[in-house]
Amino acid sequence: MGKTALKRTSLYASGASPVNLLQARFYHEDCLVYDLEDSVPIAEKDAARLLVYHLVKYQRPTDKYVLIRVNGIYSEFIDEDLEAAVRACPDAIRIPKVEYANEVKRIAERITEIEKKAGLPVGKIELWCNIESYLGALNAREIAEADPRVVALALGAEDYTASLRATRTKEGLEIFYARNLVLTACRAAGVEAIDAVFSDINDKEGLMKDVALSKNLGFDGKTVVHPRQVDVVNAAFTPSAKEIRYAKRVLDAVEEGKREGKGAVTLDGSMIDKPMELRARTTLAQADAAGIAY
Amino acid sequence: MEIRKTAVAGTLESSDIMVTIRPNPGKGLQIELESVVLSMFGDEIRKTVEEVVSSFGIEDAVVELQDKGAIDCVIRARVSAAICRAAETKFDWSAFDPENGREEA
User: Fold this and answer.
1) A26 to chain B, closest Cα gap in Å
2) Among residues A110, A101, A120, A60, which one has the least CA distance to residue A81?
3) Among A212, A236, A260, where does a domain finish?
4) I need a surface site. Which of A195, A201, A286, B25 has the fewest CB within 10 A?
């Protein structure tokens, strides 16, 4: 199987643990995030950086979209993290706690410098920006449009709610505005929108409700922190057979209407408008990406 | 590069290797290996460690290895981390860039 175009799930694996990094590839996540940030103790940052570099460069899974999450832009580790991450050649580097477009520009320029020094193709490594504060949320559109390398924004709910002095709940009303803000910015910029982690890894029912909301809002995928969350989230972001059949009927009716020169097209007695056609095309694109034949 | 002090990298978790490096002035490279896969991969592990140590220009050191089934690139990462800690220096990420002409071990 080739590398997936899907971004339904991005699973974090700690850069501090070889077994964690090596096992993570055997689950069904679309995107695997080798983490140098929160999951790595301060005293192990140097060793984790070398471990992630070697594993991504020499043992990367070929059927997944591979990311490296570096430490924060203002941390003492960012320069060395970028030196290692760029030379490891992941599909993308995930930048935590982005708040301003100029931060993204600086990181993108630094990546270009390292690519040139290392003799790597310039511009190939993409950027995901984590939006984890009210400032990041308010500036989401500028961040998404800051550099051509940016291909996704990912909402980080724990830090975002802390920045607001809000209480994080399973229902997630406190992040509803940020979800919409980030999603709208992503659509305006033409990048992918990745929803926040559902933190309780033992609450499958809660996760199912949360990911249903993510999908209904329009997100392209969700970050997960434990392998047991992967299949639930993948299933939610994969169109059902019923949804695919309906989408196909909508598009068939549209095509037939065009052939017959009709201005308005109906299906089962209801008029098909442009938004219905767009939703049907999205459903079939998701089915195609998931390798579902129809 | 000079090994200035004893340093450790890695853990005793499955798939990892704990590397301890000590100064060994004027006495060459000494490798002491314990491994769950010693009979099958002992020689390869030693060869990998020798390559990495040599790539840092180190001639004198005692390297103790407690291997729990680490694959080659994990061994390389852990030995490199232990060397940098023991030499009290940062890893030189640009050492293998084309303009510097050095081959990665």
Assistant:
1) 15
2) A110
3) A236
4) B25
ipTM: 0.95
Condensed to tens digits (0 to 9), the pLDDT of residues A209-256 reads: 999 999 999 999 999 999 999 999 999 999 999 999 999 999 999 999
Q: Which residues have C-beta within 8 Å of that of residue A155, sequence separation ≥ 6?
A: A130, A131, A132, A137, A175, A178, A179, A182, A194, A195, A196
CATH C-level class of B7-94: alpha beta
Q: A137: number of CA atoms within 13 Å, CB side?
A: 21
Q: What residues in A contact B51, CB-CB < 8 Å?
A: none
Q: Is residue A294 part of a domain?
A: no
B88 touches chain A (CB under 8 A): no
- Side by side, the strands of the sheet bearing B17-22 are B7-9, B17-22, B61-67, B29-35
- A24 occurs within a structural domain: yes
Q: Which residues of A touch B93 (CB under 8 A)?
A: 80, 83-84, 87
Residue A75, domain member (yes or no): yes
Residue B79 near chain A (CB below 8 Å): no
Confidence of residue A2 (pLDDT cuts 50, 70, 90): very low
